[in-house]
Design goal:
With 226 residues, the chain is of the alpha/beta class. It folds into two domains: 89 residues; 124 residues, Cobalamin-binding domain (Rossmann fold), CATH 3.40.50.280. It is 56% helix and 11% strand. The chain has nine helices and five strands. Helix 5 links the parallel strand 1 and strand 2. Helix 6 crosses helix 7. The longest helix has 21 residues. The structure holds cobalamin.
Length: 226
Amino acid sequence: MSNFLVLKRMSKKNEIRRLIEVLLDFKGDKIKEYCQNKLDQGMDPYDIFNELSLGLDEIGKGFEDQKFQRYFTSDLIVSGKNMKKAVEILKKYFKKTIKTRGSVVIGTVKGDVHDIGKMIFTITLESNGFKVTDLGVDVGKELFIEKVKEENPNILGMSALLTSTISHMGEVIDQLEKENLREKVKVIVGGKALTEDFAMKIGADAFGKDSIDGLRKCEKFIEAQK
Ligand code: B12
């Protein structure tokens, strides 16, 4: 391997190590400093989320590793808290559009409490003119249906990060059909545990691989409804 490649790999490793250090800082001071430094350097807030997500991925992998578990539930908790702090700090830097383009009801499905990705998707939608009603986490099909009836949104969004909870998305879609609501609302799903294939199999209208992809698909729905 050339010296250049070795150096590049080393600096990437160091960057990830630094991200993990920031995400696992128990006091939560380093994340504020990190976000402020990146903003001062002129980095886009969305790119800061993406960079931090690389660190979360590493922590996730180290948690999952059966042979050599490097991270534990406590690390998931601390990194989750720090990532939420980053969301709070960075959300005010997203530009706002005044004109409302459409409405979205969103939630993380039953049994699942992961909400960072959903929050980032929500901020992305809101800063691009969507009115979003966030139902929170661990949302059962009854509440999704009730809110679709009550708010008549253009789009229903569901998030899931656990392979054990993704099936609930299909149950919500089935219930929409049973109650003759399916034609009235577009359904978009997302979250780490999902694939495009799965989304199509359960009858969703779209899968968002990340929040920008999700936004583009929501924009298409609104365009098509005009
Ligand atoms: C932080 C974290 C936690 C925190 C969550 C804090 C919080 N408030 O969200 C806590 C500590 C609570 C937690 C708990 C658990 N976790 Co956890 N967690 C993570 C971790 C490290 C990061 C998740 C995250 O926020 N990623 C960053 C965001 C930005 O990414 P994202 O969610 O994928 O979102 C992006 C896109 O997917 C998309 N998106 C997301 N939602 C939606 C929705 C729509 C509609 C659209 C369009 C797009 C979209 O946009 C986002 C931005 O681009 C992941 C590892 C990982 N890398 O994912 C494990 C991970 C998800 N957890 C895991 C596990 C196993 C658990 C626990 C079961 C652990 C345990 N034994 O207790 C519990 C389950 C609790 C529960 N019932 O939900 C596993 C899941 C494995 C699986 N496939 O099922 C993972 C993958 C770790 C691993 N590799 O093993 N966790």
